[in-house]
Amino acid sequence: MLRFAPSPTGDMHIGNLRAAIFNYIIAKQKGEKFLIRIEDTDFARNIEGKDKEILATLNLFGLMGDMVVYQSHNFERHRHFADHLLQNNKAFYCYCTKDFLEKKKQEALEQRLPFRYDNTWAMLQKDENPRPVVRLRGSMEAVCFEDTIKGKLVFEPHELDSFVILREDGVPTYNFACACDDMIYDISFIVRGEDHVSNTPKQILVQQALGYTQTLGYAHLPIILGENGKKMSKRDTSSSVHWLLEQGFLPQAIINYLISMGNKTPTEIFTLQEATEWFDIASVAKSPVKFDIKRLRYINREHFKKLTEDDFALLLGTQDVRIGALAKLHLEEASTLNEIRQKLDLIFAPKDIHAKYEGEDFHTECLELFYVLKSMAEEPIDTYESFKNIAIKESNLKGKRFFKPLRILLTGESHGLDLGALYPYLKFYLKDILRIKGE
Ligand code: GLU
């Protein structure tokens, strides 16, 4: 089984989504199940409702889990495993108070030594502290594992001291719960962010101590850098999946982009299902990748082009296929649904003909043309050629002095797509389109 294990502690980040996509694809490729595990062990940081929000987002991206589980529902099983480790002397109670450990950390800092827990401290404060934690006995040997992206990784014993597996309130720590659950659900391969590399040896140690013999595969994804070349943080709005969706990026385009990031793909534009045919986690680059919103915009446009006019209309909240067609035309100058919506809104909004920068007579000329067009709109004219010729004749305007007002009156903008291309769609709505602000 493969799994995606989000923590309900914040908004979904593109790095999380990328891990979800890869785990999902590998599950499909191996013919194994895909588990969604909500890692809610950190009660203080859990945000109410985030779990549901994450699940809804995954659904929207078509990354449905065969099973959804909450880590906290397994606490009893985790505690049972901890008891087993205590009985076998693979784990022990540690009575050190927070103050004591803080003092030791301070001492290490002063001596410029890395802080390392010393097992001989475990019982020192037994009389003072009624609430011990449980620690897994640290390793005397190096722990190594093969990472599909990073290659062989080795962790020396001094990096692996005895770490806490049950907190003083009996709640399992993240590493412990995660290692137990990966065993319980028979996880075969884990794709996750590089920030988890140092957790992996600890999780391996837990599983070894419990006598688990299955070897898990790992792939730790390189971090995603922002446009400034620095690690993308939660503060970079474009790293939020929610923000991208709000901007009008299509889920299938975001998926396409995240799969192609730092990866050679046989085609530029593809669907999740197509990627399942050829995706190879081993070919994901190990160096950090830069988030390139321009590229995402391009990919988004390409996915929009693949939509039918009907589907496009539905995305815009209408069943009018002509609106879908009009929207498609605007892909020449817009890349997201919001940008397209803005263009269409401008077409249907009352037009501003008071723009001073267009010259002294602009307002009068617009008004003249407006009345000519308004009368013509009573009986729609089929082709742009005749529409234009009649309007020129009736208005007595020529060249730029005709076309500029015409464009503003029809589209609300002074530059844009070829009016001849737009007219076949605009002609059905001329009465709605021909409105001016404040007149
Ligand atoms: N809950 C972890 C996170 O959201 C994922 C850990 C994992 O995949 O093992 O970063």
- Give unreliable regions as ranges: none
Number of strands: 12
The spatial strand order of the largest sheet comes to 1-2-3
CATH-derived topology of the largest domain: Rossmann fold
Mean pLDDT over the residues: 95
Say which molecules are bound, naming each kind only once.
Answer: glutamic acid
Profile the largest sheet. Answer: 3 strands, parallel
Question: What CATH architecture of the largest domain would you give?
Answer: 3-Layer(aba) Sandwich
- N- to C-terminal separation? 66 Å
Number of domains: 2
Level-1 CATH class name of the largest domain:
Alpha Beta
Helix and strand string, N-terminal first? EHEHEHEHEEEEHEHEEHHHEHHHHHHHHH
Fraction in beta strands: 5-15%
Q: Assign a percent range to the helix content.
A: 40-55%
- The helix count comes to 18
Alpha carbon gyration radius: 31 Å
**CATH homologous superfamily placement of the largest domain:** HUPs
Shape: elongated
What's the short version?
With about 450 residues, the chain is mostly helical. It has helices at about 15-30, 50-60, 75-85, 100-110, 175-185, 200-210, 240-245, 250-260, 270-280, 295-305, 310-315, 320-330, 335-350, 360-375, 385-395, 400-410, 420-425, 430-435, and strands at about 1-5, 35-40, 65-70, 90-95, 135, 145, 150-155, 165, 190-195, 215-220, 225, 290. Bound molecules: glutamic acid.
